[in-house]
Design goal:
Blueprint: H1 17-27, E1 35-40, E2 48-54, E3 60-64, H2 75-85, E4 93-97, E5 102-106, H3 113-116, H4 125-145, H5 160-178, H6 185-203, E6 208-210, E7 219-222, E8 225-228, E9 235-237, H7 241-247, H8 256-269, H9 278-302, H10 313-325, H11 331-337
Antiparallel strand pairs: 1-2, 2-3, 3-5, 4-5, 6-9, 7-8
Helix pairs in contact: 4-8, 5-6, 5-9, 6-9, 7-9, 9-10
Length: 346
């Protein structure tokens, strides 16, 4: 597609998504009678997605952002370019209109890894091996770029402040906004202190490049290979972060044998992680990750009005229950959370 018109020549962002998409197609010389526009199911972000099918060319997906953007600063573009330099497969950018908040992307179809796992005859092992190889490539090749690449992810990190914010998000969005928990000031303070300790321990780990949301809904299965999406929030963090996202995925159930085999494949690919305390570090990351996920689900249900996310709460609590019960250090955390999440003790 051709380059979009410069900012200021189109409709304002106050217009509807339909209006902005129509303006973008008009700029591309694609009249309504030769195109079919279909709104796609979105994710937990504030973007929406539209597929445009043409009579005389390949379809594209338009990512419609809530605000205008400068194309040289949009993380979707800058992080995508970094991932391509690292040989991580991501959708190609085929057009943009920053003033309309629209980014045009290669159409990868509709099958995420989550969808693919629902096909009974499929063997998930090869795709999960491929997935951990992508994690290993991010960590290994990202490390080689970090000292001479000014791209945003290398300047962002899961530091104490970020990890603490995510845990506080669990309290505000899941416990308060969604579950309407009545927490005394004393318990709230004790909970904050305990979660801060977890954040500080994770923030002290050596940092590698992380996708940040590496799960089955953000891995497309395209021509029997994985393509990574939703990478714009990539940053530096613990080596266990993406692996926890993949193997303790809030959206799907994985067999214990698959998890064990995939973990071993990761440790073969990243031998520096084969340490005596790897399992403990993995579980600690799991606690943080699942509390944050509950915060996201609570926000989507109670604030954004997306009740479908309630389907993923029980699985996430199950992961959390197993991990918390496996370590005596989490006894107080269980005691404080159990009145508001009874499933943690059932």
């Amino acid at each position: 597609m051709t380059e979009a018109a410069p900012p200021g020549n189109g409709p304002t962002m106050a217009q509807t998504v339909d209006g902005r998409v129509a303006e973008y197609l008009h700029r591309q010389g694609l009249p309504p009678q030769t195109t079919h526009v279909e709104q796609l199911h979105g994710d937990a972000s504030n973007r929406c997605y539209v597929r445009v099918t043409r009579r005389d060319g390949p379809s594209v997906v338009l990512a419609v952002h809530p605000e205008p953007f400068a194309t040289d600063a949009l993380p979707d573009i800058t992080v995508g370019a970094l991932f391509r330099r690292l040989a991580i497969p991501v959708p190609a950018v085929v057009g943009q209109a920053g003033d309309l908040g629209i980014l045009a992307l290669e159409d990868l179809g509709d099958q995420t890894l989550q969808d693919w796992l629902g096909v009974p005859e499929g063997d998930p092992a090869p795709l999960y091996r491929e997935a951990v190889e992508l994690i290993a490539k991010l960590q290994r090749d990202g490390d080689r770029h970090r000292d001479n690449d000014g791209t945003v992810p290398f300047g962002l990190a899961f530091d104490t402040a970020k990890l603490t914010w995510e845990l506080e998000f669990f309290q505000s969005e899941f416990l308060l906004a969604y579950r309407h928990a009545a927490i005394t000031p004393a318990i709230a303070e004790a909970l904050r202190e305990e979660l801060s300790t977890i954040a500080e321990e994770l923030a002290a780990e050596p940092r590698v490049l992380c996708h940040r949301d590496f799960h089955s809904r953000n891995l497309m299965v395209h021509r029997n290979r994985l393509v990574v999406i939703d990478f714009q929030d990539a940053r530096m963090g613990p080596a266990t972060y993406d692996l926890v996202s993949l193997l303790r995925d809030c959206y799907v159930d994985l067999s214990p044998d698959l998890v064990t085999a995939t973990t071993e494949h990761f440790l073969d690919a990243v031998p520096s992680e084969r340490t005596a305390d790897f399992g403990r570090r993995f579980d600690l990351m799991s606690v943080q990750r699942h509390l944050k996920a509950l915060g996201t689900f609570g926000h989507q249900i109670a604030v954004t009005g997306r009740p479908s996310f309630a389907a993923y709460v029980p699985r996430t609590i199950t992961y959390l229950r197993r991990t918390l019960h496996a370590y005596p250090r989490f006894g107080r955390l269980l005691e404080w959370l159990a009145p508001h999440l009874p499933a943690l003790v059932s």
